[in-house]
């Protein structure tokens, strides 16, 4: 059994299939989810997080079909949405505690788990500050803290490094490498270099379909000097996307 098993997944939004017959298996490790704007990354992550229902196909999370009672499986998930809403008047600690409570963590475990999560994202010294006093990058780090507070077995992070400064991005890479040792971490990003540095595996989607799954080194081999990009892996990405797109350059 793999942590995530999706078969022929379709998610229809409005007039189009944002996810279009996608099959994917992911186990332990850090998986980077890449793809151009509108490829379906956020919709896929929302579906894996059980926030969005699939229109067709099957999804199983940690061996449980994701179409019936979701409570038990949701307790084992961590999810950072692309647009992360929060209550401005909450203190940082209170906010992460509140999310831990929503995840139905046993109350006795919450204070310790919140402390550890804030420590892991380097925000211990801001724990008693109000959310509204944080910078954008710090808010993103609180988002990561709430996603990991329950020690999830499946961690889904939608553009977690947006707004992080270089030192925090390095720290983030170390953190996900640690987490990926015994859980399944899926990270959507536009930063190909984050994938090269932090991920054991790359999942490339385009137009709602799976285009490629393999190691960052495998992705790099797809590129040539003619392809756009500053690094071998960026050129590999460009090669696969340009080979599979209808066009639409601007
Ligand atoms: N609520 C919605 N209603 C209708 N169409 C939608 C909705 N949300 C997304 N879409 C469409 O679904 C497709 C996939 O969008 P999605 O946000 O999943 O892509 P993405 O890969 O995350 O893009 P980005 O990199 O720009 O964040 C796009 O064509 C988008 O326009």
TrEMBL record:
Residues 4-232 form the ABC transporter domain. It comes from the Bacteria. Gene3D superfamilies: P-loop containing nucleotide triphosphate hydrolases. PROSITE patterns: ABC_TRANSPORTER_2. Keywords: ATP-binding, Nucleotide-binding, Transport. InterPro entries: AAA+_ATPase (IPR003593), ABC_transporter-like_ATP-bd (IPR003439), P-loop_NTPase (IPR027417). GO terms for molecular function: ATP binding. Pfam families: ABC_tran. SMART domains: AAA. Belongs to the ABC transporter superfamily. This is ABC transporter ATP-binding protein.
